[in-house]
Each structure stands twice: as structure tokens, then as C-alpha cells.
Amino acid sequence: MHSHGAGGGGAESLFFIPAVAALVAYWAGAVSPRSGRWPWYRTAFFTLGVAAVLVTVLNPLAQLAHEDFAVLSLSHLLAGMLSPLLLVLSRPFTLALRTLDVFPARRLSRLLRSRFARFLSFPVTAAVLNTGGMILMFRTGLLPAMQESMPVHWLVTFHLLAAGYLFTAAIIGRDPSPHRAGYRLRAVVLVLSIAAHNILAKTIYADPPPGLSAAAAEQGALVMYYGGGILELVLIVLLCRQWYSSARPRGRVTPTIRSG
Amino acid sequence: MSTPHRTRRSPRLRNLVSGLLFGIGLAAFVDEVVFHQLLQWHHFYDRSTTSVGLFSDGLFHAFGWFAVVAGLFLFADLRRWHETLLQRWTGGVLLGAGVFQLYDGTVQHKLLGLHQIRYEVDLLAYDTVWNVVAVLLILAGAWLTYRTRAAVPRESTASADA
Fold this sequence. Notes:
The complex is a heterodimer.
Chain A: H1 16-31, H2 40-57, H3 61-67, H4 69-89, H5 92-99, H6 102-113, H7 115-121, H8 123-139, H9 142-148, H10 150-172, H11 183-206, H12 214-246, H13 250-253, H14 255-258
Helix pairs in contact in A: 1-2, 2-4, 3-4, 4-10, 4-12, 5-6, 8-10, 8-11, 9-10, 11-12
Chain B: H1 4-8, H2 11-38, H3 51-80, H4 86-111, H5 123-147, H6 154-158
Helix pairs in contact in B: 2-3, 2-4, 4-5
Keywords (chain A): Cell membrane, Membrane, Transmembrane, Transmembrane helix
Pfam family, one (chain A): Caa3_CtaG
Subcellular location (chain A): Cell membrane
């Protein structure tokens, strides 16, 4: 409990390296002439997305999350839902494909088209990785292990971010994806994932995970249920809005052009 | 020549589906905001719920939020195609809200014992009012739906030969 000194001067500061590297790469792309008037709000989304996950592994939040399950829940919302949402909305792959040199861009596009990427970005796979990770975290010895050991906490945070990104991208992503699933499948997977999140939150409330007091479990479950609910509502609106703009009546305005 | 889109669209079905979704979502929203948050009659968890009950409640809560948003986007879509049939849509809303409330009042409250309308009071009056209101909503919705079974959007008839 007392192994983490205040001030965040320990190993945690190493996380600035990947965070700064990602920011520099993105900003360099965004300001380069090839990006073609890249909207400023996407750069802001990316920056906030990196910041949202970074604060969860730095003090004071890391230390507070260690002591208080409600804060841990909050930091999971930041790392597993808010940060992935912001990163997906910042469309990093679109930016990379637009600004990279031809060869790395081709390599990236081949990677995005690969069978492995197709498997990972299939909504059902992404949802299983996302929800499965949560269930493991609360229903196995992982939660006490996270509280004992900071590296386990970091690994779990990385999984939350990666699985959250995959899931969000599979549901509402706008980056080039040669095999995007249809709206119906995405809607069903989204509703089932939200349901799983709700059910898990209520079971945490009803039946505290190992090593937690009832009061702590209740507070954390409420944060998970209502805080997660807000972000899930955003996902629902974004998915429906995508459908709404994809179904706009182009045909009726110029009916003769469509037949060509 | 008519576009492929137009031949596939069915305004009568779409108005009904949009209304149904919005009605289900509205009932779920009222349940959450009025009964859970404002009145605090419903509990987050009442310590007697079965796992089937938690599963069912979680699923319906998730679907309720999705339904209210999707229903409104479908309604916006009907508006921009000039296909709104307001009476039929309203019928769908009443039907959706009524069916949700009846399901909640019979299956979730009574069969699964998931939660009750209120705690520490005699439930009979509450249950009766809850389910009678649900049946009235369903009847009104069914009547409006039946009445508009042959309705055609006004704009659509004007451009039917397009």
C-alpha cells in the first residue's frame, strides 16, 4: 500500500515516453501539408485521448485508485471507454495513410486488410475481448493482484485501452476498414455489450469481488453503471448518426443519376 | 425511373417501427428517471434478485437506451423522406410503451421478482394501477395502429409517378 511515493516520480514517468511519441507522431501528421486541412478537433481528441489514459497510470490517480474502488472504476472508464472513444474519433489510421510515404502507407494498408486485422476488428471478437477482460478482472484473482502489483495494474490498463479501442473502432470507427460489419450486427453487438456491462455492474454491487468491502463494491458498481451509461449513450448516438448520414436520400434529389 | 431505395421503403412499417422503438425507450427512460432517480421507489438492487432477473434487467436497460435513440433517428429519417404518418407513429409509441410496461409489471416485477414498484407498502394497488395503465396504453396504441393500417404519406402520393 505504501510502496508508491507521492509525486509520481517512479517508474510511472516512463509512460511519458510512448505517450509523447504518439502525440509527436500524430501532431506531425496533422500539421503536414499532406494531411489536407486536418480538422483541429481530431487533433484535440487524440491529445485528450492520450491524456485520459496517461492520468490513470500516474499519481495521484493511480494511488487513489489503489485505495478506493470507486476511483478504480472511474479510471477504468477513462482508460477503457473515454480514451478509446476519443482516439477512434481522431481517426489515426486515416491520418497515417494520408501522410505517410508510399511504402509505409502500403504496408499499413496491407496490415489493415490482413486476415488477422479482419478477425480482431470483427465486432463479435472485439466485444468478447472487451467484455471478457472485464469479467476476468472482477471474477478471478486479477483484482487483488492488480492491487498488489503495479505492473499487473499497468498490463490491465493496457488491455482495457487496446480492447476498448478495438471495440469502439468495430462499432463506430470511421477509419478505413475494408471489412466493416453491417449496421444491424453492430447495433446488436453494442446492445449486448452494454447489457453485459450493466449486468456485471449489478453483480459487483450484489456480490463484491474478492478483497472488497460491500460499501466499496456498491460505490464502484454505481460509477461503472451510470458513468459507463453516459459513454454508452454517446456510442449509441454516434452509431445511429452514422446510419442516418449513410441513408440520406441522395437518390430522390437526382433520381436519373443513380441509374448510371 | 424510381430508385432502388424507394421501392424498398415501406412508410407504414417504418412509422410503426420508429414509434415502437421510441415508445419502449420512453418507458425505460421514465422508469429510470422517475421511479429510480426522482421518486427512488425502485432500488438499484434489492438483495433478493435472481441471476436471471439481473440478466433480463441489464438487457432491457441496454435495449431501452438504444431504442429511444434509434427510434428518434428513424423518425428524423421519415421526416426527411416526407413519409411521416404522425398518428401511426403515435400508435407505435403507445404500443411500445404499453408492452414494455406490461412486461416490466408482470414478468420483471412478479415472475422474476426482479424489483418491486415500491417497498414496504401494500403492493396490490400499485401493481393494479401499473398494469391497468399498461393495458390501456396497448389498447390505445392498437386502435391507432389499426386505424392507420392503410394510411399513405401525403407527399408520397403526390410524387408516386416519379
